[in-house]
Amino acid sequence: MINCVLHKQLHAANGDMQLHVSFKLAPGDFISIYGPSGAGKTSIIRMLAGFLKPDDGEIHFEGETWFSHHQKIHLAPQKRNIGFVFQDYALFPNMTVRENLLFALQKNEPVDIIAELMQVTGLEQLSNRQVQALSGGQKQRLALARALVRKPKLLLLDEPLSAVDNAMRESLQTILKDIHIRYNLTTVLVSHDISEIIKLANRTLVIENGIIIKEGNPADIFFPEKPHNQLLVNGQITEIVKTENGQMASVLLPPQIIKVELAENEVDHFQKGDLVQVSHQKFNPTIKKIEP
Ligand SMILES: Nc1ncnc2c1ncn2[C@@H]1O[C@H](COP(=O)(O)OP(=O)(O)OP(=O)(O)O)[C@@H](O)[C@H]1O
């Protein structure tokens, strides 16, 4: 459990801003911090990591005090059980992938974790390549692997996927999700991307002007009018068959085909080949034609 109360006066271009937040993270939480530019998201992450000292407040992590203004405690980043990937992650350009990871390993720690992390992040084939010869996505994966070398419990990510193209972003999101589960992490991710947040996080803090204005499940926050577990996805009707109660459409949502019962008044509306939007609630999918 992480318990945080943070207060910091920040110097924005248009005047001072008071950052005032209080939140708890349960073990295994994947929290996203969302909000407009300048709201204070990066500052929160940096205070959790120990790179920015709050003016007041406390940070408690599983019984340890990382920061307490009152008790004059401010643990250095290396004394906190964290891994981090920031926007300006600093890899050593003249070292190889493996050397960068070895460099992050503490003395006398077993080196097995290096091979494991290269495998998890798909960097095995690039083990001996210098960082300066890596693509953006590969550097991102290396930064992520490096953040995990010391087996942290808390992973702090400040828009780590913002500089890569969509396909790479999706594959990195999958890696992130796997890593979060595999290493029993509590993860805090700053992100501007709502679909990314929905995919990865179980809780979102929405920050504006240094204050948490909303907090909760991402689907509830970003799509409040929709039922909790509803997803909208596009598919194509592959078949319509008669049933006892009416008609049933088979809809291809790669890689699966789902069955959708058609209401009486919908029967003549759909035909094989139609592109449709599926409102996919757990037990009751419905479809709507996508007009060309
Ligand atoms: N060390 C600091 N001391 C005082 N003010 C700071 C400090 N670091 C950042 N600020 C100011 O605090 C405000 C919030 O910055 P922060 O980087 O936390 O916002 P953000 O929500 O992460 O924005 P973005 O999405 O653009 O990265 C900015 O106006 C910034 O200039």
TrEMBL record:
A family per Pfam: ABC_tran
Keywords: ATP-binding, Nucleotide-binding, Transport
Record's keyword annotation contains rRNA-binding: no
GO molecular function terms attached to this record: ATP binding; ATP hydrolysis activity
Domain ABC transporter: 1-234
Gene3D superfamilies attached to this UniProt entry: P-loop containing nucleotide triphosphate hydrolases
Record flagged with keyword ATP-binding: yes
Organism domain of life: Bacteria
Descriptive protein name: ATP-binding cassette domain-containing protein
Source species: Limnovirga soli
